[in-house]
Amino acid sequence: METGMNTLWVVIIIVIVLGVVVGNITLLKYSAKFKFPTPLKKNDDKQKKNGFEDEEDDW
Length: 59
Known about the structure:
Transmembrane segments: 6-28
Radius of gyration: 27 Å
Number of helices: 1
Organism: Alteromonas stellipolaris
Number of strands: 0
Keywords: Membrane, Transmembrane, Transmembrane helix
Distance between the termini: 75 Å
Region (Disordered): 38-59
Strand content: under 5%
Helix content: 40-55%
Shape: elongated
Structural class: mainly alpha
Order of helices and strands: H
Protein name: DUF2897 family protein
């Protein structure tokens, strides 16, 4: 009876691990179809020496 229960737990753990691996692979395939937008670059001449556009902010 002891080996039957151990075998059952091993099979359950293997099924869970395989399910996680297959799920991650399908998620990677699905997310590879999406295109991420490229961020727009601001004009560098607007940025001041402190890194912000508005250097006269008084708060």
